[in-house]
Design a protein that fits this description.
heterodimer; A: 547 residues; TATA-Binding Protein; 5 domains; 5-stranded antiparallel sheet; 24 strands; elongated; B: 175 residues; Glutaredoxin; 7-stranded mixed sheet; 7 strands; 21% strand; Cytochrome c biogenesis protein (chain A); membrane (chain A); transmembrane helix (chain A); ResB-like_domain (chain A)
């Protein structure tokens, strides 16, 4: 059974209450304290009263402000450490995340990775930390909001004498016409937009109570932000993918589950014209070319039906677009951003067949480095056969030509040259700055005669349904801050004791504002102004007088 | 309801809700890096071989499949290719299929490789790497042993050491 505390005024208070919810009488009076602690209206914080079951124990733990602050500090320390080395999404694209941290930063880097700081926001322990912080915010808020709301709802007009006397602002007026003065006081308070209640000739004026809910509104905002963050991990809620696409190529847009395809026609990189009159001076100061535009001209397609993996999809054109920085291509809640580029990557190499004896050319071939043909006919009995091709050439351990990867970083070729005078062909090995004749002296040779390059566009594909939730949470957070900061909860009690009128006043902040209201009130009604006993105490202390 | 009991229920519900939210988020985090693993259904695909014929994985239902991902520039792949070829020669082709998926290379590169290493078993080309991505292939070679019901029985990452090793694995999935 709960141990209700029944006050002299007849109101039933929950166990642990410090000041009676109705009349404010101190139930656990500390006579040595001249001014009452009005925090949470002297109500009973639930966590302080029930401690039996394990659930209550967990609850009480998270109700503690100390625990909440500790969690906030832990989160701050974690995110601070997370900025020491780069996050894994920001390490170079060609680096292996398994070895990158150790190679770059030594033992600290290894720990950094092992502890999950390299992908902090996806670390299980960081998520737990945020979850516990969320629990702490919810529990601590409920634990304080419920009793505070109850106490403010139950407050009565007539307050206990001791409650009145122990307020920071308190004053007594000896009155000749108390009724009249109270009437004038009520009018003055209403002019100051107080809600005035009357009971047995006593007055209670209150305004700005809703400012007390500020912290809880603020916490609701925080919880919504946390929910938004959590939803990012749910399938379909949040996409953030990278797509590199060569000019002329078509690929499935990552994150769209093969629903959308993109063709990159052209990447354009423009700089300001150094001879432009308008920019001439500025460009001189900048000392070099300044980028004016990064743009990819693309076509977006939608795949029809649900093709099986690997199957060539039937594509239906959606639209053409020029994707520029900060001007993404938008489709189906997705945004495709121009985010990166590489200029002039090798695409095709041209070679001329030359008769070494008289330097006579016999035609030219073009080899696509990504999809080479085997045979090239030059006419008049000349033809070239590509025997082997090494896109990323090196000599392996056995001393044979080999390729490190399928990227044409260092292309090498073995050609067989057929000519009317060499119908069985001659072999020519060509790599960058190398032209070898591995099977004896040749009469013909292949000579590099041209390069065709192409650009690569780097796109970022984004779809984020959580951002609006986070945004709403942030707005609610700010509303809560404003509510608690810019409004004050002011209360004034006037109690009639025979011909005396007692006056007490209380605010949760901005005592100066309250005193201004009181000044107006006393001016209008002729009541004497209450004394700020905290100020008086400090005044006395500073002068070495007795308090 | 008694207020104290009601309070206990509310507290329990809130704490459990938060615990569930944390648990689910962490589950999603670990699920995101999921790879295709033992016990999973092998994702179906259609790819073309060097001769332009379409090959569909689900057409092999009822047979066991050894699915090998490789590239011509990958040395460990080159090492195991002769073992696979030798196993293929003596394979009971009515019961077991060997299929190799080349990752994103040109027809020229694959054909040249097949000629050089005298490969007869079917090789399909994953030009856009869609299948490679769907199977979450990391280091290559990677080999999947798929049973007659299309479930992955085993995943081997890295070069398979011998003919005997391959035969052993195949005998385990043979229907």
């Amino acid at each position: 059974m709960s141990q209700d505390i029944v006050c002299d005024c007849g109101h039933k208070n929950p166990e642990g209450t410090i000041l009676c919810e109705a009349c404010g009488k101190p139930l656990k009076d500390d006579e040595t304290k001249p001014i009452l602690n009005m925090r949470y209206e002297g109500s009973a914080r639930r966590s302080q009263t029930y401690k039996k079951t394990p659930i209550d124990k967990i609850w009480n733990f998270f109700s503690s402000v100390k625990v909440g602050i500790t969690l906030i500090i832990l989160v701050l320390i974690a995110v601070a450490i997370g900025t020491i080395f780069p996050q894994d999404v920001y390490i170079p694209a060609n680096a292996d995340p398994e070895t990158f941290y150790k190679d770059q930063y030594g033992i600290l880097g290894e720990w950094y990775k092992a502890l999950g700081f390299d992908h902090l926001y996806n670390s299980w322990w960081f998520v737990i930390l945020l979850g516990l912080l969320g629990l702490s915010i919810i529990v601590a808020s409920i634990d304080r909001f419920v009793p505070l709301h109850r106490a403010l709802k139950n407050q009565k007009v007539t307050r206990h004498d001791r409650f009145m006397k122990k307020q920071r602002l308190f004053g007594v007026t000896l009155s000749n016409s108390p009724e009249k003065q109270l009437e004038m006081a009520a009018k003055a308070l209403k002019e100051k937009r107080y809600r005035v209640k009357e009971e047995d000739g006593n007055l209670f004026a209150e305004k700005g109570r809703f400012s007390r809910w500020g912290p809880y509104v603020n916490h609701i905002g925080l919880i919504i932000v946390l929910i938004g963050g959590m939803l990012r991990f749910f399938p379909g809620m949040y996409t953030n993918e990278v797509l590199w696409l060569h000019e002329g190529e078509t690929a499935s847009v990552p994150g769209t589950h093969d629903q959308y395809y993109l063709t990159n026609h052209q990447f354009i990189f423009q700089t300001y014209d150094p001879d432009d009159k308008k920019y001439k001076e500025a460009l001189k100061d900048a000392g070099g070319a300044i980028a004016k535009n990064y743009q990819s001209n693309v076509t977006l397609y939608k795949a029809e039906g649900h093709p099986i993996l690997g199957e060539e999809p039937k594509l239906k054109k959606v639209k053409n677009a020029g994707v520029r920085v900060n001007h993404p291509l938008k489709f189906d809640h997705y945004q495709l951003f121009q985010s990166d580029y590489r200029l002039g990557e090798l695409y095709k190499m041209n070679f001329k067949l030359i008769d070494k004896r008289n330097n006579q050319p016999h035609g030219e071939i073009s080899v696509n480095l990504f999809n080479p043909k085997r045979l090239y006919h030059l006419g008049k009995g000349f033809r070239i056969k590509l025997l082997d091709y090494f896109p990323d050439f090196y000599f392996n351990k056995k001393g044979e030509p080999a390729s490190k990867s399928d990227n044409p970083n260092n292309p090498a070729f073995i050609f067989k040259m057929y000519s009317p005078d060499h119908p069985k062909g001659e072999t020519n090995f060509i790599a960058i700055k190398k032209n070898l004749e591995p099977l004896g002296k040749n009469d013909y040779k292949m000579v590099l005669s041209g390069l065709k390059t192409r650009n690569v566009s780097g796109f970022v594909v984004k779809r984020d349904f959580t951002i609006w939730i986070v945004f709403a949470g942030a707005i609610i957070f700010l509303i809560g801050v404003a509510q608690g900061m810019y409004w004050n909860h002011r209360r004034i009690w006037l109690k009639r004791k025979g011909d005396d009128i007692w006056m007490s006043a209380l605010t949760n902040k901005n005592w100066y504002g309250l005193k201004k209201d009181l000044h107006y009130l006393t001016g209008e009604s002729g009541l004497s102004e209450p004394v700020d006993r905290l100020e008086e105490k400090i005044y006395r202390q500073e002068r070495g007088m007795k308090a | 309801m008694h207020p104290r009991k009601k309070r206990l229920v509310i507290r329990t519900v809130i704490i459990l809700l938060l615990a569930a939210a944390i648990g689910f988020t962490i589950y999603q985090i670990f699920n995101k890096d999921k790879t295709v693993a033992t016990g999973d259904k092998a994702p179906d695909f259609v790819l073309t071989d060097v001769n332009g014929h379409q090959v569909k994985l689900s057409d092999f239902k009822g047979k066991a499949v050894m699915l090998n991902f490789w590239a011509t520039w990958c040395d460990p792949c080159k090492k195991e290719m002769p073992y696979i070829e030798n196993v293929y020669k003596t394979l009971n082709k009515k019961k077991i299929v060997i299929l190799a998926v080349n990752i994103g290379e040109s027809q020229f590169a694959v054909q040249n490789f097949m000629d050089k290493y005298h490969i007869d078993f079917p090789i399909v080309m994953d030009k856009n790497r869609d299948v490679t991505d769907a199977y979450h292939i990391g280091p290559i070679p990677t080999t999947f042993f798929i049973n007659k019901d299309g479930e992955i029985e085993e995943k081997v990452v890295g070069s398979m050491p011998s003919e005997k090793y391959i035969r052993q694995k195949l005998s385990e999935i043979e229907p």
